[in-house]
Fold each of these.
Amino acid sequence: MLIAQITDLHVRPKGAVVHHMVPTAPYLRRALEAIEALEPRPDLILATGDLTDRGKPKEYRRLRKLLAHSSIPVFVVTGNHDDRGPLRAAFADHPYLPQHGPLQWTVDVGPLRVIGLDTVRKRHPGGELDPERLLWLAERLEEAPARPTLIAMHHPPFAIGVGPVDAHGFRGVDALAALIASHPQVARIVCGHVHRAVTVAFAGTAASTAPSTAPQLVLDRAGALYRLRLEAAGFALHRWTGSRITSEVCYLDVRGAPARAQLWGA
């Protein structure tokens, strides 16, 4: 069982750019082409938020055109740059997405249960899981306590050591940790948001972020500014081995082929 993760796509309308840089669509296109060419091919693609840059219907329409070139099923998670209404409308043909409320869902794929969590905090870049969303997660975990589970969400439930990013915070993180610790079937938590690959031990499992398919975060740990720079697009591969999930980060080289750069398991 192989899952590809793309994140922080920041798709904009044709001709528009992100942070005065180049258009993000070509980066996403190259990542999708590299994923499509993998052997073995992934069973599904998880897109873990910030699918568009400003949450506008026009951006989601362009995103759908880009994703249409993938023959691998794509499952989407919302991020702080997204807007639930236009996202829901753009992906109305995705039956796993709820018609109302937070964009949280479950799908069973092969031996795995995949849970998509909505960690968006209203009008704030930081993450949040309020009691309602945590109760929903608890109920989903109780449904299948023996089924290995991967949780996908946008905001990582841990600090990465970069002040301007960590200052965004994550409301409800302690309650989330307690919930995860009480459900050992959670084999991995995968996230986005920080435009870098980071992994930590979390509540008895492993939590990780993946590189963006758009510009990457500059790891200036002593600086006070949030800075991005253009680097090759990246994505992550999560493989269920039958007993655990191993995760691998791939960066695209100058020819667009994946250059594998990092491996961890838990």
Amino acid sequence: MKPAADYQTITKNFTKELIDASSGKKTSLFFIVHQLASTPLVSDKEKFQVLKIGGSILQNALVYQDGAKLVVKSMEEEHLPIFSTGKAFLAFIKAHLRKQVKVLAINFAYPLKPVFENDRLDGVLVTGSKEHAFSGLVGKQVGSTTEKFIKKKFNKQIVVTLANDTICLALSGLLKYPALSLAGGIVGTGMNFAFFLDEKRLVNLESGNFNKFTLSETVKTIDAKSLSPKAYLFEKEVTGAYLFQHYNLLTKGEHPALVSTHGLDKVARVEVAGDKQLARDLMKRSAELISCQIAGILNFTKREMKFVMEGSLFWHGYNYRKTVAETVKKLSKYPVKFIEIQDCGIIGAAKLVI
């Protein structure tokens, strides 16, 4: 298995993409800027509702600010249904909206084009994903559409604000750290990064789409058979949704085929039979490539940063976090710290309100 390319070069390419995108040039990075509310949407100790709507799990909580303290109450979790239509989604919100709530924040893990109006962040749903088609809601502002729906059904005026999961991840770090020191990173089944540009603006990179690196032969095969050829090539090279597929292609049937990257991790740990060295090499290469993006963000911002991280591959993959930490040190002079925040999806969305 040949290396993708020199990691210093990939880091420089990623940094240049950030510089170009920030000045309005077209790059492989989406560089989607999000504006935050200038003032809180609720008063101190006023309860509001937060929903984290992911691929398969709903988190539902009441939240309020008590001075400098953020209080999360009445947290509930349940499996999400498949939202084949926008109507099904709106009916779901209606069924879960708590009484007396005037403000609703949503961590919405689907592709959004941010819209800032009425001093709050909203988003247009770009497309369905993760089996949720959202037919009839695609192309519409999710927050304002929800507000109108609740007004029609209950004659109740609520305020809805929302952002995607990577933006909310970065926002959750505001509990402990200043905005300009923060980034959010997801490295699991998929991957993405977001970070603060200033106190009130963040950027979602959709960095899985980065393509300024030498593709492996296996990713070329995987990409050709994918539902989105020539898109999200970096994600297909490094993430949990695809790493085990690289292993299966490289072993050419000499070892039992794997059905998940969790299985690849077990091979690397010699917990199940397989090509231990290949499994470890794939994990290492993934971690090194992820390090290029982290180092690129550090070199672009030119400051020490805290990355709030999510994803089982990053936190639990064989030697993964250690490899990332060691590699970033070689690629950037700016220090980085990786942190984990409990209930980060709820806390991050709450920061859209307060």
Amino acid sequence: MDLTASLEAPCAAERLFELVDDLSTYPQWNGLVHNATREPDSDSAWDVELRARVGPLARSKRLRMVRTRCDAPNLVRFERREHDGRQHADWVLEAQVDPRPADGDGDPGSRLVMRLHYGGTFGGMVLERLLGDAIERSRPALLDRVS
């Protein structure tokens, strides 16, 4: 499953990149990310807990995500990298931030494009809908953080 979402933000690309480059900020603006804690002695790995509710049921999933590429302030990529020696479904999150021309008042703008790839078979259309809904709800919260 692959999802892509975009957002136009009224801030400099560097400001927007600060938020998408650090997974520990995601719980502040993305309701699907319940918790994201940077691993001790690491600046590129996080323990992430995803949590979603489907009707009366709540499900959670823990992932170890590692920043595998960082071209600040424009591109960051996170990939699932577990330490338990078992095979796991791929999770890949990539965020591309590009500056936009200044508006009529001279204020900078930026555009965010996020791509999420999930290589597993769990959830199917239900998971795709949950992720899509979470993306829609996260847009205003992220805009609040950069404004």
Amino acid sequence: MSAISKQYMTEAEYLALERDSEIKHEYYHGEIFAMSGASRKHNLITANTIGIFHNQLRKNPCELYASDMRIRVSSTGLYTYPDISVACGEVEIISDELDTLLNPTLIVEVLSPSTESYDRGTKFQHYRTLDSLQEYVLISQDSARIESFTRQPGGTWVLREAVGLEAAIDLTSIQCTLALADVYEKITLPDEPMLPPPPSNG
């Protein structure tokens, strides 16, 4: 993503512009960044995952949001739109429009070639500063693979992953389970690449 203007914009100006815009933008340190559109696979995986969460959270006090819910990372000033977010407990939402969440419990990003390094790197650095965030989930759209980073006491994060359509992963922060066969329903995936063999000792 690249900035569409070098002219400084206040948060209030950004929010006013965003509510009238047909495309979404991230905001950081006075600049706005246009977000690219999502592919068919990205949209299907996101919709499948939201459907799974909806079924499992229906009688749960947690609230489930799709990508139109904006998140503000208060400590860094980033405004962004994760693919899926879940907030548990007392939900904190700012603005009169009730469209900016402050305290997600879980965030899900479906990886795209153009944004994967950002989602894994800088964006996750921002997300980790959210005191409310307990779990960060990355879903591949090119292979059957889901990664979950879970916050531990002391602020460390532990990675767990599920690989293959027969696998499932428990998301402990919201007491939900993602079966990969359901997440990738109607998705044609390439054959899983083989990992290289271990080096020989000779």
